[in-house]
Each structure stands twice: as structure tokens, then as C-alpha cells.
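Handoff note, outgoing to incoming analyst
You'll be picking up this chain. Sequence as last confirmed:
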Amino acid sequence: MSTMTQHAAGMFCWSQLGTKDPEGAKKFYAPLFGWTYEDTTIGGDKFTLLKKGGKTIGGLYGLMKEQIDHGVPPTWEAYVAVESADEVVARVKKHGGRIVMEPFDVLDHGRMAVCQDPTTATFSLWQPKKQIGAEVINEVDTMCWNELITKDAAKADTMSKVWIPAVNNAGRYGRWEYSSMGQVMRDGFAVGDALRDTIAAAGNGQSGRAG
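Most recent structure output, in case you need it:
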């Protein structure tokens, strides 16, 4: 299992679950993916690091009462690595997006912001400092895919202008691509064949429920 030392700007770098039931989520995901957990605090709030093979691969936290009261559902949140959260936020605004949370520092771990594209799909930005994001990606039981499901692909495509200035010069890729089925940014985790029966059983309520 190789360890990431940095994530290129414009690439997905982190996933975390906001849920009404953190302990239930832990019981659900541990037997599925073999994850272990490290409970910590950020600014006095409890936060759980998701681990695989001793490496940090994501996060988990309990939704605040205010979020629940406003109808925020349990959600896997996708984070994109950026060199400057403030500069990308300015581009999001310029190209028709909305800022849910303006850039702010997460202690000395990094700087983040929460944004919506013009179709209201939510995504987050991560400007790394001490914390680069996930230490392992694209391996079994870790984040391997992120996609946007949207009702308006053409409208969402304006967000490609947010990322292209940062990535084209490095030749990493030319543009983001979008489907046209809904309005949600979601994460995918790679699994081995042996986990399929476990996942099916968990879906039938045999291993607890997340959320």
C-alpha cells in the first residue's frame, strides 16, 4: 500500500461522512471495508479519522443539531485539492456558483471552503497545510472515483472553467466531465470480490445502519 505525499490541484483528495449516527456508521462500514477508526477533536468538536492499514483515508463526524433541523441529510462529502481556496472561491462566484461556507482555516491542518455549482451540487475545497488529505487512494477499500450527477450538464459544465486554469498548464487533464441524471457529487470506494456478499448482507440490515 503506497502512501500519498501530495494531491495535485484540481484532483479529489478527501472524502468524509456527515451523519446523524456516527457510532452506527462505524458499525456499518467496519465489516464492509475493514476500516478502523481514530477518534479525535477539531476545535472542540469530535471527529473520527477513517483508517485502512494504519493510513488515513477519510473522515466521519456527527451532523450538528442546526444542520439536522435544516434538513441536511447524511452525506458523503467530496473535497478537491486546491493551491488557494480563496482564489478558487472567487472563480466559483465568477462562473455562477454559490459559496456555502467562505474559506476558513481548520487549525493548522489546512484551509477549506464549501461551494455549490450552478445546479446546486455541493463540493468542498481543501488547501493543504499539515494535512494533505487521504494518505491512500485508488486501492481496494479506499476512495477511487468521484462523479457528479446533475439535471443540467451544460450548466454544470461552467465549473470546468474553475479548474482548468490550475491544471491545463501541468498537462494532467483538460476538463471535467458531467452526466445528466441528478444533482449530487458523490464518492466511490473500491472493493474486492470477497466483500460483495458482506455488502449485500449489510444492505439487508444484518450489519447495522449508517446515517
